């Protein structure tokens, strides 16, 4: 929304600047420390929230959680129908077993509903801080174009302080939201290379997501099967990092880089296992196949 500050009074400017002041969301939430990045000035720290990326992850996360909720609600409806039939047939042992299953699914559904409401609450708070931050930015720009006075300088100082507080709060909320992203169970399915893969070839696959790393080695056997020293790894998703996959071929003491690719995790927030087949070489002559279960 565009605003004109022509004829904007000092009293109004101070009121508007003060209206951006609010109690910090950190005082109301138990949050993870924000991710700090070194600025160009030595000794200073800045925070770098990513509203567009957070929006994408939030929408994917909410969609995935609703998929789980619908699946468990369908299971509950099915079990409830069997429960009624069993009660009429008076098979007590089976009836009580079904009753326990129903109670278990009901508890899980309540947990999912709470999880969804918590994620929505965090994202709503994030959007509020984002709007306040944008408002402070627009006001700073408007004041910088107006004649400098003592009142305008005081307002600029207040606006800068509010901008910094909003930025820090957004980063703290990002940290809190990451706690609710769940886990990615990544399974190694092997390399696909057609004529490029020969018996005796050895490869190393390195998968990284932020600071989390997974390094595994594999060998092509004489019957064209593959053996890997690890088959599964759990990664904790985060808001800003993508999967980075590097494949190297091991030849004695030498290593030859086959290729490096990145893979966005936004499509993995779903109830069904996702098969990932990525081209490691530019021509796609060697591919890597993984499976991700959220």
Automatic annotation (TrEMBL):
A Pfam family of this chain: PL48
Domain of life: Eukaryota
Ranges of residues in domain FAM65 N-terminal: 1-294
Name used for this protein in its record: RIPR3 protein
Name of the gene this protein is made from: Ripor3
Gene source species: Piprites chloris
Similarity annotation: Belongs to the RIPOR family.
InterPro entries from the UniProt entry: FAM65_N (IPR031780), RIPOR3 (IPR026136)
């Amino acid at each position: 929304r565009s605003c004109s500050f022509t004829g904007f009074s000092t009293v109004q400017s101070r009121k508007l600047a003060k209206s951006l002041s609010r109690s910090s969301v950190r005082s109301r939430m138990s949050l993870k420390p924000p991710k700090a990045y070194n600025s160009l000035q030595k000794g200073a720290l800045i925070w770098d929230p990513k509203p567009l990326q957070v929006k994408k992850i939030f929408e994917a996360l909410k969609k995935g959680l609703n998929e789980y909720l619908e699946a468990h609600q369908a299971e509950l409806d099915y079990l409830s129908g069997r429960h009624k039939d069993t009660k009429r047939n008076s098979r007590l042992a089976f009836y009580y077993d079904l009753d326990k299953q129903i109670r278990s699914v009901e508890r899980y559904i309540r947990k999912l509903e709470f999880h969804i409401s918590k994620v929505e609450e965090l994202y709503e708070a994030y959007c509020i801080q984002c709007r306040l931050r944008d408002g402070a930015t627009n006001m700073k720009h408007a004041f910088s174009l107006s004649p400098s006075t003592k009142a305008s300088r005081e307002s600029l100082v207040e606006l800068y302080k509010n901008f910094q507080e909003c930025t820090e709060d957004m980063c703290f909320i990002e940290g809190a939201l990451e706690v609710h992203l769940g886990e990615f169970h990544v399974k190694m399915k092997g390399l696909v290379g057609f004529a490029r893969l020969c018996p005796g070839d050895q490869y190393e696959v390195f998968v990284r997501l932020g600071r989390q790393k997974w390094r595994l080695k594999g060998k092509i056997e004489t019957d064209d099967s593959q053996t890997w020293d690890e088959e599964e790894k759990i990664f904790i998703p985060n808001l800003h990092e993508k999967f980075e996959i590097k494949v190297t071929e091991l030849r004695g003491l030498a290593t030859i880089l086959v290729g490096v690719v990145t893979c966005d995790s936004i499509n993995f927030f779903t109830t069904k296992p996702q098969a990932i087949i990525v081209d490691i070489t530019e021509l796609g002559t060697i591919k890597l196949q993984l499976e991700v279960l959220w």
